[in-house]
Every structure is written in structure tokens, then in C-alpha cells.
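re: that chain from earlier
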Amino acid sequence: MASEQLEEYLEAIYDIGERDGTAKTSSIAKCLNVAPASVTEALRNLSEKGYVNYEPYRGATLTGLGKEMAVRIKRRHRLLEVFLRDVLKIEDDHVHDEACRMEHTLSDETECALCKMLKAPSRCPHGSLIQPCNREVDDCTGCFTGEQEPSEMRDEPLVSVSDLMEGQGGRIAFIRGDKKVVQRLSDLGLTVKTAISLVRKAPLEGPVEIAVRRTKLAIDRAIADNIFVSQAAEKA
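^ sequence. v structure.
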């Protein structure tokens, strides 16, 4: 299986899994506009490579390795959509297809440069959250100032506070933003390694209420988008 085709399948399984839990063969076939028999063969191939857990007639879910790759592809895709809309002024209706064609050839170096140029956007033109990079850093300050030294890769997935379910929590591992953003959150007691948990989310993209340092705090959804935690099951 060619790398581009592999990535398309992982991306489709990720999207369907986010919605339905398990990606069924028929759903993948519809998403990629291919025959169900082709999907079955591809899923067996992906299972052998360790990217998916596949059960005939039940569907597929991503393994840790598969999800890691799928998240990286989605990040590149959504960064490209922002670039196409905001820099090249491509209409929103066309950015998805253009990004699909470009995402498979984007290098790690170019992805990093793109994120830096766009000032680490939090959402794509269609409103989907953009995952942070997988570098082992606390925030974007070093990258924005050009002082960021090469760092290790983060080996655990992070979850945005805005994506937590009520009662879930963890310790802040990454803050997306520059020095001013980091300082503003620090003034609220929200610093890296601080334990927090989600109390409730208001409907219609309203404020998010979190528990931190034995108190409750309401923050804008846009702020919650840029705070990422590890060990999401841990409560504050």
C-alpha cells in the first residue's frame, strides 16, 4: 500500500471513529469512494502493519501507532487549510480538497515553519481543533522567538481542555501561545504541571468551567482550545 493511500485510510478511520467509535467497512468505502472489497483488503494490510485493530464484519479502530499517525496527518491538513484561506485567499469551499492533495508531501520542517508563520492557529476554517505539535515543549514561546532548540518528541497524546468530558482531567502539559498567552494563563493559576479537571461546558461554544487549585474557574472556549493536558483520567 502506497504511503499516500495508507494515510488516507488512517485519516478516514480517525474521522469515522471520532463520530461512531468503530469505523465500519461500508462507512470507510463511502468516505473514500472505493469498493467495500478494496476496504477489506486495505484493513487487513493496515492490521498486519500494526496501524488498526480489525475484526471482519465489525470494523476497525486505530491502534496507538495508527492514531499517532492519523493525528499528525489531520494536523497538517488543518494547518494547510488555514494557510490556503488566510494567506492564499482560497475560498473556504475549496481549501479541503487542496489540503488533501498537499498534506501527504509536507515535511516535518515545513509543517513547523507553517505553524510558526500562522502563529499556531487553534482551529481550521471549518471549526475543527488543530492538535499541537508533538515536540516535548511547554509552549510556543521558543518557536516564535527563534530560540527553540531541537527537542525530544512527546510520547503520549495530549487532550485539549475543550475536548475533555465532564469529570475528566489531567495535568497541563502544553499551552499553545506566545509569552503573553502563557503569562495571562499563569495569572489565572494555569501553568504547566498544574492538575485541572473539567466541571462543565456551556452549550453553543460557550465558556468552560474547570476545577483548579481547589477552586472553580470559568474560561472562554478559545482559551480552553489552547490548554492541553496529559493523563486525561486524572482529576484535579
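The first helix runs from residue 3 to 20.
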